[in-house]
């Protein structure tokens, strides 16, 4: 199966629309969101086209295709307007035969990993940086931020297709799209 994975939309209708188009055009089976969906938080500037109500409408249009975890900027009140569950601090998925521990990154992180076995993957957002590496046999993955990237990176998202995890810039459909980082899992 094919999955689109993204994090840190932070209420940007502009990037939520772009992510929705990527999901639609990709043929992916599910959209996995790693938290911080509607609000920007006190440390971030407002993202482009900040419109949480519009983001709610966009994401609810994909409610049957979304798996999500809670970010540090997500609250119980957000769950009241979103038609898919977001309040879990983490989820464990078996995707294409690989165990993924999905978390936003503010509780569990690469520096505070849950109990994991070699060959499993830890995937999170939160730091707004794209990461695809293997440390001590555990895959550490982060799609970067769709709306407020850091470290000079472009807005980004990732694709898990089979055992290949690829991070792409979130660009307009007509723009050339080379990958930022890529890793083969397993």
From TrEMBL:
Among Pfam families, the record links this protein to: Metallophos_2 (PF12850)
Q: Which UniProt keywords apply?
A: Metal-binding
Every copy of the Calcineurin-like phosphoesterase domain together lies at 1-161
**Entry-linked InterPro entries:** Calcineurin-like_PHP_lpxH, Metallo-depent_PP-like, MPP_YfcE, Phosphodiesterase_MJ0936/Vps29
Instruction: Name the cofactor(s) required for activity, per the record.
Output: a divalent metal cation
* MF term (GO), any: hydrolase activity
The residue ranges crossing the membrane are: none
Enzyme nomenclature, EC number: 3.1.4.-
The highest taxon in the source lineage is: Bacteria
| Family per record | Belongs to the metallophosphoesterase superfamily. YfcE family.
* Designated name of the protein: Phosphoesterase
The scientific name of the source species is: Johnsonella ignava ATCC 51276
